[in-house]
Amino acid sequence: MKERRETLIGKRVPRPDAYAKVTGAAQYTDDIVLPGMLHGAMLRSPLAHARIVRIDSARARRLPGVKCVITGQDVPAVRYGNWRLVPELQDETALAAEKVRFVGDEVAAVAAIDRDMALAALDLIDVEYEELPGVFSVAEALAPGAPAVHAEHEDNVSLVRKIDYGDVERAFAEADYVREDVFTTHPVSHAYMEPCSVVAQADRDGRVTVWTSTQTPYYVQCLLARTLGLRENDVRVVKPCVGGGFGGKMELRPWEFAAAWMARATGRPVKITLSREEELACGRRRHPVTITSKIGFKADGTITGKEVTARLDGGAYNGMGPTATFLIGNFGAMLYRFPSYRYDGVYVYTNNPPAGAMRGFGAPQALFAGETQLNLAARELGIDPFDLRMMNAMRPGDEIPGVATVGSCGLRECLEQVRALSDWDRRRARREPGEGLGLACYSFISGGVFNWFDTKYPFSSAEVKVFDDGTAQLTTLAADIGQGSDVVLAQILAEELGLQVADVRLVTGDTATCPQSDLGTWGSRVTLMAGNAVRAAAQQVKRRLFEIVSLKLDLNVIHELECGDGHVYAKSKPQRRIPFGEVVAMAQRANRGEPLKASGYYTPRDCGLVSPAFSFGAQVAGVKVDLETGGVGVTGMYTVHDCGTELNPMAVEGQLEGSIQMSLGYALSEELVMDAGRTLNTSLLDYKIPVAEDMPPSLSKTVATFEPAGPFGAKEAGEGLACPTAPAIAHAVLEATGFCCKDLPITPAKVLAHLAATDPERAG
Q1: Of 165, 190, 312, 451, which has the most beta carbons under 10 Å away?
Q2: Which parts of 37-147 are beta strand (E)?
Q3: Can you give the pTM of this predicted structure?
Q4: Are 313 and 350 in contact (CB under 8 A)?
Q5: pLDDT tens digit sequence for 648-672
Q6: Which CATH class name applies to 289-450+608-763?
């Protein structure tokens, strides 16, 4: 009788860094102190748009304790941005040399013996500006004769992305019901717990080591080498613990360049840590977008076609905006079967602070518009919102022609289960005044592919080394920034080798010691892509071990063997087993002591333009609206997620809870208040993120699907969950009050304005 092998897949395994984080022992970048370290600070433009006429830093250089001052005139004006995708879209330099384009644009940097001295030196740098007229909205930027943010783009249009398939005109002509709506979404901050920080140190040969709060160590290495004029391997990037990133720490930032340059210039380490005010005033933010969506239906609710236009306010620079422009169009075509679809996305320069990647990257904006419009259509057609979605839902094998192919898809199952979980039918029929239930669905990528990427290296790689004491070491550049990917990768390796997670040592986040190919943490890519690389390396190790054991046990074929419970054994006779460490020792002796290790690689193939896999899910929000004040209280959240095989339920739950917290703020309270390009609310007292007591009761579950492209059938569980909360709450408010908010956030003032407009007594 065969023994049943114990599996780690689906087990609630705690994170390896949990104890260090809750006790305060975890080391973040700002915790690093090196001998002789200097402290740096950045001088920022007070104007949104101006030419730099003159910079005089002489007084700052003479200040005692100041060791280095650099301006855009002192360093190479190497243009970068948007990774290596399209050179003409690379529009940033580390320090502004001729022109500033937003309030906060970096124009100089100082290194001094302490931070107070560095800040004092900034006040002594004299910059003469010639102020220029600015543009602070998409409408202003696109108006005829508007001032150009970048001379190369006189119309302020950075780029246009399009998706087009089917016959959209015919689709609308054949529709029984067509509606068109305009939605606007607003800029919000990542508000991560740890402000950005960097420490740089140079050796006598000019090579640089940079410790930085980043989610893309390899990106930073490549772009920093380029801007410094060094070879790639002359720059070492180390990622300490990261206190959240959410997309805001995935680009090269000016302070990383400045710290590295000044470390080389002074021969001393340099640290620069941003303040919360700098993060809120000048940091990357989610793209504000105006979306016009037109959709057609047959009388029974079948969708005939859809047309979407999106105008993104990119701020002063491209950053990752060109990708966001495409993704909004991609997500607009997801979830449902659109026989015809047309998308026109335009990325527009303004003199606002630059926008960038943020959790969900294009999906929160696209799905707020798409799901809100679908709920409005269901209301007009007299069809239950669940029923409308069920009849149009995507299924396995569906395509967005030329863009994406869906592998596994449990959307219909998610809808069925969240309907029951939320008690939708009973509660919707019996709701009290001011109460409402709202529904929204979502889909997300499991790692962006985007066929314009430079594929000099694999998308992900991993090295696995095993030891004769029965342990293993996993080395990978995949970046855990708080999402818990380290424990999931350790689970994957331990499962493949038949070990326990405690038997795995992790070595991560260092470009000098880890395999030189991982594109970082973004697009919910780590579990699928790095996980596949880990499995590939582990399987090579297993094959070598099995060759040794097959000789020892006199077996003809190695596929009769398996790893489990810390042993290598025969599948048909599990009592014939040898301890894992003993097999490693046998293999090393057979190879004259050569260490037993293997490298694994993963690059998606033949999976369309966007992603090798897509997650799906559905969420219901319950609200109670105070009809006197307009305040919206969220009374419950119910979520069912299709993440393929659930590798670690604890990690999935953590992602769900974090997503709801972020999305509550996006829906109801967070808003960067701007005045002519200047951010007015630059503290967490004025920028209102939800706190623990704001979190509503939540119930969640997953559906069982298997994703062929993912390790052990797994796919995304980190960003898709951030997308449905805002449209679900908007729908619940609609059901409670009759008010459909099409311009986020949903504020009491907007609710009260609607109630006053529809109630003559209240208006009087």
Answers
A1: 312
A2: 38-44, 50-56, 66-71, 99-100, 106-112, 126-131
A3: 0.96
A4: yes
A5: 999 999 999 999 999 999 999 999 9
A6: alpha beta
